[in-house]
Amino acid sequence: MIKLNFDGASKGNPGNSGFGEIFRNHQGVPLLSFFGSKGWDTNNSAELEGLWQGLIIAQDKGFFPLIIEGDSQIIINMVSKIMQGTPSHKVSKSWRMEKRIELIAIWLSRHKAIYIKHTRWEGNKVADFLANLGVECRLELHIGSFSSLVSASQLMNYNNIMKNDRYQSEDTHQDAGALKVY
After folding, report:
1. How many structural domains are present in the chain?
2. With bands split at pLDDT 50, 70 and 90, how would you rate the model's confidence at 119?
């Protein structure tokens, strides 16, 4: 199993926004991280954009079966409804998210062995860090190492978050049997 943690951030809501994600293997070992800027937008739209980018990368890298985990109950509920067959145009009234929701619905209809789960912020700290980096760096999409883009203190903060978050990731994989499979 591969786990994708996603998050979005907006400074002002709407305001400068970004997204961040990390893929980990079944042992919690990081495989790939990425972040990007969404420009002037809302936090929910940034979260959805991050999820969309993560799904594209998962397909590209063959990261399946896939656990999707995020701390936005709104986005998790929307994706769960899509996975249960609710038409994409009925899961949100937001014009900002309409196109992404439609694309996610199409993507999900073509891929099986997808699990979806809500986590609290404490279980999503790495993705949160990366989403805020997306806001700050204002790069459209950055995949992989980012040590040259951040200060030494930010890099140390990231490494501490990764060290502590890895155990949360392992616990999540042990719970995979209890997740909804679509």
Report:
1. 1
2. very high
